[in-house]
Amino acid sequence: MRTKKLAIHWQILIAILLGALFGVFLSEHIKYIQWAGDMFLRALRMIIIPIIFTSLTMGVASIGGSADLGRIAGKTFAFYISTTLIAATLGLVLVNIFQPGVGADVGLSESVESIAATESSFIDQIVGIIPANIFADMADGNILPLIFFSILFGFFITRVGEKSKSFLVDFFSSTYDVIIKITMFIIRLAPIGVFAIVATMIGKQAGDMNKLVKTLSSLGLFVGIVWAGCLIQTFIILPAIVRFVGKANPWKHMSKMSTAILTAFSTCSSAAALPISLRDTQEKVGVSNKIASFTLPLGATVNMNGTALYESVAVLFIAQAYGIELTIVQQVMVVATVLLAAIGTASIPMAGLVMISVVLSAVGLPLEGIGLVLAVEQLCDMPRTATNSYGDMCAAVVIAKSEGEVLKI
Ligand code: ASP
User: Fold this and answer.
1) Any ligand 1 atom below 6 A from CB of 350
2) For residue 302, what is the domain's CATH number?
């Protein structure tokens, strides 16, 4: 008789716990396991560019007629912008209520020169969406230009002759199928990879436990607010949207997507979770390929609920720590800038932290403030990345339902 295998999300959860224990108690041995985490992350990164290119091209090509494309794209953007605004505002409300920065130790700041140097203007970002060399952008992992090119390519597939069109659609969907198979193969190794990632991450800080405890005691409220905000967005607001707008069962949905959510949480990269969410949204939830392969890759890049929430909390926290009072108008400006910054944030670890510099300079706050939140970056990146990914998965469900699809949730 076959013994029933433990579901993969449980395996990952256990791996996170075991990894944390290993990191705390055996921190001097992490060098023996770090490679496993590195290999797992590299394997996930390996498929990100091919999966975005094939799935988006195919998604846009199969949405076909321009009326469909326009409608689905319109709904997707409306969903992404409104949920990001809700998240940013939620962050603002929480940080105003609890005031974590008032009296914070500003002396804690670390050097942030390297971060400030990466700041680029919005105009540059917008111009950069058009790839001057698509291969260079792919090689550098620049996702927005890749998305732009894939949408364009998919769209014009629908404008060529029938023979070429069906060849290209077949070609891209077959390639996509192969990549999903590779993904499934990599996911089986996730528990080992996640164990090593978490053990290494915690092990590296374990040597400095005293410092961590000290930092946490002064930044604890800040971290607590980021977690509370992400939990409210993930367990109340987004499920409510799935329930009332999507008319689907959010808890069934969440449980089917738990492998992807846990992968986002433990890798701190929503791009890394994308292959898994693409597969499960179609196979377990039943969203059509055309909607999943449009909403999810786009969402992984532009839709960042957790990051928006984090950034508005962090910016207000920094303002409070410096004793700078922001007016309501300035706070509204923070939300607007956070929306744009979150769209521009790459779906990789720590990207949200880097983008805070954009918001800080937009509202005229000292860039050095980033040093205040640097010490607890990892702790904030985990929940916000999980929220980022989950937001995309909810969009896929709500939009599929609005298009009359019958789902398994
Ligand atoms: N790590 C986040 C993500 O991949 C981005 C961020 O740093 O906020 O979604």
Assistant:
1) yes
2) 1.10.3860
CA 55 to chain centre: 18
pLDDT digits (tens, 9 = 90+) for 58-75: 888 877 666 788 899 899
- Range scoring the smallest mean pLDDT among 204-213, 219-228, 304-313: 204-213
Dihedral angle over CA of 220, 221, 227, 231, nearest 10 = 150
Q: Using a 6 Å cutoff on CB, does residue 256 contact ligand 1?
A: no
- This prediction has a pTM of 0.83
If one counts the domains in the chain, the total is 1
User: Looking at the domain assignment, is residue 407 inside a domain?
Assistant: no
Tell me the pLDDT band of 217, cut-offs 50, 70 and 90. confident
Domain that includes residue 229, residue range: 8-402
For residue 219, give both structure tokens. Answer: 């930044």
Which atom in ligand 1 lies closest to the alpha carbon of residue 342? 8
- Quick check: is 396 in a domain? yes
pLDDT of residue 44: 80
Q: Which of 115, 384, 387, 390 to mutate to test the pocket of ligand 1 (most atoms within 8 A of CB)?
A: 384
| Residue 409 belongs to some domain of the structure | no
Note whether residue 121 is domain-resident: yes
Q: How far apart are the first and last CA of the chain?
A: 31
Q: Give the mutation target among 313, 353, 388, 389 for probing the ligand 1 site: most ligand atoms within 8 A of CB.
A: 388
